[in-house]
Amino acid sequence: MSPRTAVVWTPDFLAYQLSDDHPLNPVRLDLTMRLATQLGVLDGIETLAPQPATDDELMRVHAPSYLTAVKSAPEAPFGVGHGLGTEDNPIFFGMHESSALIAGGSLLAAQAIAEGRADRAVNIAGGLHHAMPDRAAGFCVYNDCAVAIAWLLEQGYERIAYVDVDVHHGDGVQASFYDDPRVLTISMHQHPLTLWPGTGWPGEYGKGDGVGFAVNVPLPPGTGDAGWLRAFHAVVPSLLESFQPQILVTECGADTHAEDPLANLELSVDGHREIYRTLRELAGRVAGGKWLVLGGGGYSLFRVVPRSWTHLLATALDRDIAPERPLPADWVAHTAGLTRQPLPVAMTDGQDTSHEAWGDAAGERVDASIIDVRRAVFPLHGLDPDDPRD
């Protein structure tokens, strides 16, 4: 029997627009849903419409004073602090309501799995992984990833794995559970010396009871599909197999792509498709098939994000799209009216995603990071950092 997959969606997600010219433009969500619909990915799928997360739900992660600041910010003449009113996080009307709705979407996805109504659940509007307990950061007001995980913990979950494949470090989620051994956070990201937020070193591996349960894999600028996948397979599967999570939560930012304007990795849409398929396989193998899928970053709004996240939806729904599948003419015509950029013609960038496994003495650029992270955390899980079989 195929896993049951819930898709959380409402057009009201598009209200999370930080400013007219902000890089995090909700058009990417609209174009993704349009493309997935026109390719038949969502045929017969009744999407779930969320309610905004309540204050009590948000306060599982965020400080009450921060919620007060977010609510009052649009009417405050002199600013309210807490990281609000910056270039990254400008204040906008409806900020609390639209942010709480996205958090409510990720909560609804988590609830669908926890209550047995679905094995997998997707909220592409989610993945706002930088928001801290008491401040906004990196385009993120409320941390829906952490809010959903905190809710799952309250329901009695004891082992939750969070894997973040966004180009930026999943710092807000890591901070929320840094001393909690019930949550294993793994972040694959561009090296902190070369990209905001400047965190996510292998030596950031948790504290107190949480030592060993924060894992960071920094990748050098220019890393492409082969290097990224090499690093992922050298670190992530072994840790997940050791941890045996009851649910896998993934933040699937598409900003690792070579065309993304805010970062410097070199992945393709084909690489993204392979990542999503790998996450699906891991969820089935180590987490009993329970997979909570969230969006994240991605700033090539027209050429990359819609194709990448349509592959993400298709993968979660077991309706995989062939890479050579042409883009629908109606979608291309609609999107061409929004941008002067030339648009791709198919669901592929034409890239080969094959890669060599770590430990083959190939001398890849990513190997220094692989060795650093394995030596930092593998012994804490009873794994041999120098044995490629672990």
TrEMBL record:
**Listed CDD domains:** HDAC_AcuC_like
Q: Which key words tag this protein in UniProt? A: Acetoin catabolism
InterPro entries for the chain: AcuC (IPR003085), HDACs (IPR000286), His_deacetylse_dom (IPR023801), His_deacetylse_dom_sf (IPR037138), Ureohydrolase_dom_sf (IPR023696)
Q: In which pathway does it act?
A: Ketone degradation; acetoin degradation
The answer to keyword GTP-binding applying to this record is: no
Q: Does the keyword Chaperone apply?
A: no
The superkingdom of the source organism is: Bacteria
Residues annotated as transmembrane: none
Please state every residue range assigned to the domain named Histone deacetylase. 22-315
Q: Name one Pfam family in it.
A: Hist_deacetyl
Q: Which family does it belong to?
A: Belongs to the histone deacetylase family.
Q: What is this protein called?
A: Acetoin utilization protein AcuC
Q: Supply the source organism for this entry.
A: Pseudonocardia acidicola
